[in-house]
Amino acid sequence: IAAAHSGTGLILDEIGQVDGKEAGECSYMLANGEGKQRASRSGGARRKQTWRLLFLSSGETDLSQHMRAAGKKARAGQEIRLLTIEADPGAGLGIFEDLHGYKNGAAFSKHISQQAETCYGTAGPAFVESLAVAIEEDPDSHRVKELFNKIRMELDDYIPPKPEGQISRAVERFALIATAGELAIEFGITDWQEGEATIAAVACFKSWLNQRGGTGSQEEAEILAQVRFFFEQHGQSR
């Protein structure tokens, strides 16, 4: 599945359907970009599947919660590969921030579902084509680098001067996504306003940082998470 989505985004539907003991290893494999070595029918080694993608889970539980429920402890390296962003922007509209004129979240959600069934497969190829033309005109990708560095500096405002390596990796991930969004605006692929993709990426980054427990040690955050999980499991009985 990962190889089939190479070069695009992979949405993992319901991480809860994966065995919690294997979920962490799946996050490593997806992020590392290659599958396991398999044998062919003749007994020889088959070519490894490889991919390059960004992925997220649309599940209701995050990776660490899912692994704890299976008696496993999530490592910081696993969690940084599958970042937890709460699907609630705090606008009182569930997962939505703006209903765009619809009377409630259900009506807006239905509209999105209907549009997704009729309008798809257009923006992605158009973006790749436009990007290829832009790189041909500017082989050193000055514009891409300029956008990326500008957005990264905006994200750096929310972290200490010398952050942990894990924080830096997350910043680069969000900056990359925002850069693609801003380029899509420049290419005329979306009708978003300039800067809108950056605003969205910054909001998601701040949400992830808050969910993580700040910019401190991930190990300390894990200790607090374990205490919370204990209360969730045994709060009524103990």
Characterize the structure shown.
A two-stranded parallel sheet has the order 1-2. Helix 1 runs antiparallel to helix 2 (63-69), helix 6 packs across helix 7 (165-186) and helix 7 packs antiparallel against helix 8. The protein is globular and about 65 Å long. The chain has helices spanning 20-32, 63-69, 76-81, 105-118, 123-137, 142-156, 165-186, 196-212, 218-234; strands spanning 9-12, 54-57. Helix content is 53%, strand content 3%.
Furnish the topology, listing elements before pairings.
Layout: E1 9-12, H1 20-32, E2 54-57, H2 63-69, H3 76-81, H4 105-118, H5 123-137, H6 142-156, H7 165-186, H8 196-212, H9 218-234
Parallel strand pairs: 1-2
Helix pairs in contact: 1-2, 6-7, 7-8
Task: Considering the chains and any ligands shown, give keywords for the structure.
238 residues
Instruction: Supply the helix-strand structural class.
Output: mainly alpha
Strand arrangement, major sheet: 1-2
Number of strands: 2
What percentage of residues falls in helices of 4 or more residues?
40-55%
Global morphology: globular
Query: Which percent band covers the strand fraction?
Result: under 5%
Task: Write the element-wise H/E pattern from the N-terminal end onward.
Answer: EHEHHHHHHHH
Residue runs with pLDDT of under 50 for 5 or more positions: none
What composes the largest sheet?
A: 2 strands, parallel
Instruction: Enumerate how many helices there are, as a single number.
Output: 9
Mean pLDDT: 85
Give the CA-CA distance, first to last residue: 44 Å
CA-based gyration radius: 20 Å
